[in-house]
Design a protein that fits this description.
The complex is a heterodimer. Chain A is α/β, with parallel strands linked by helices. Chain A is 32% helix and 22% strand. The chains are: A alpha/beta, B alpha/beta. At the A-B interface, helix 2, strand 3, strand 4, strand 7 and helix 5 of A face helix 2, strand 1 and helix 4 of B. Chain A: One of its GO terms (biological process) is protein transport.
Chain lengths: 158, 185
């Protein structure tokens, strides 16, 4: 080590750090693009099933999310262990769905309202009963575009 | 090194040149590990609500492809048990009816899929079944699009072409009110 410093003497190689901010900005921009801001934190365990025939959802502002699943550990004491529905950031019942849809609808311009999609994020383990109730409510509220949220399946069916 | 006095060391600046490398390392690490959260799923158009049940008894039996899923997540297709893996092929055969069988759809326009599940059916199974049915149609559209226009059926296709294909093989699925034999969670 001592030898090494001696050889170079006092001439310090000045490496320009001017590009550092650029790099940090790059990082920042990357994460700003990628990160999906979740405005509501999940109180339910939702592991969506996998499928192959997927459609990508365009225009996030036209999508409202309905979560169905069992409450997570910390909420189990309050809400029990049977599957519940979460609208926005609170656990609700099917009866609250029309109001929830209406609240989302009024924020949008009239021309776009026909393109509103409901994204159903349902846990794979949930039975169809509660999902059926949600579907019936959506049909009664005339919200017919529905997207069953699912991940991409890669392996073959058995 | 031993000879450098404390004062010398004080004036030494920390070399910030390697910071860039560290930042890059971080960047690459996150690039590799992040899965870009995409909102994907099976798009479904629900039928408008009406108080009376649609009457499918008026339809000819040969045109109706009934798929039942029970609370044990078992499949009953046209009165016969079936494995999920065979559903897609079997549905395709029913719709197109290549051998003009008397018990299959008269034409793709007449074919109707009737899906019925129990309130105790797992959502996962339900979605898998729906996925297979939709997949069968998707494959048929693909075949037709390839034959007619030499391109696969995608959303980027011209609207007129897509429309003509969908008129040739319309996706008609009727979901009956589910039974409630099984246990719900």
């Amino acid at each position: 080590m001592a030898k090494f410093t001696k050889k170079r003497g006092k001439s310090k190689p000045a490496i320009s750090t001017a590009s550092l901010p650029d790099i940090i900005f790059m990082l920042l921009f990357f994460f700003m693009m990628v990160t999906v801001l979740r405005d509501s934190d999940l109180k339910l365990q939702v592991n969506t099933p996998e499928a192959t025939e997927l459609t990508k959802l365009e225009e996030k502002s036209l999508v409202n999310y309905i979560y169905v699943g069992k409450p997570t550990k910390q909420y189990q004491q309050v809400y029990g262990t049977s599957p519940r529905i979460q609208l926005g950031d609170k656990i609700s019942t099917v009866e609250d769905i029309p109001l929830f849809l209406e609240q989302h609808k009024v924020k949008l311009p009239e021309a776009k309202r026909s393109r509103i999609t409901s994204s159903l994020r349902v846990d794979g383990e949930v039975t169809m009963g509660i999902v059926q109730d949600v579907k019936t409510k959506l049909r009664k509220s005339n919200q017919l575009k529905v997207n069953y949220s699912a991940g991409k399946r890669s392996e073959e069916l058995n | 090194m031993a000879k450098t006095s404390t004062r010398d060391r004080m004036s030494n600046e920390i070399n910030a040149g390697s910071m860039a490398d560290i930042a890059f390392l971080l960047l690459i690490f996150f690039l590799v590990t992040t899965t870009i959260a995409e909102d994907k799923g099976i798009l479904v158009k629900l039928p408008p609500w009406s108080d009376e049940e649609p009457d499918i008894t008026k339809l000819k039996e040969r045109n109706v492809y009934s798929v039942l899923v029970n609370a044990q997540n078992q499949l009953l297709v046209r009165e016969e048990p079936m494995r999920l893996a065979n559903l897609r092929e079997s549905t395709k055969e029913f719709i197109m009816n290549p051998n003009n069988m008397p018990n299959m759809a008269e034409s793709p326009q007449n074919a109707i899929i009737s899906l019925k599940n129990d309130r105790g059916t797992n959502y996962q199974t339900y979605l898998a079944v729906y996925n297979e049915l939709k997949g069968a149609y998707q494959e048929l559209w693909d075949d037709l699009a390839n034959k007619r226009y030499g391109e696969p059926y995608t959303d980027d296709m011209e609207f007129a072409k897509r429309k003509s294909i969908r008129e040739e093989i319309p996706f008609v699925i009727s979901e009956a009110e589910p039974t409630s034999f099984g246990d719900e969670q």
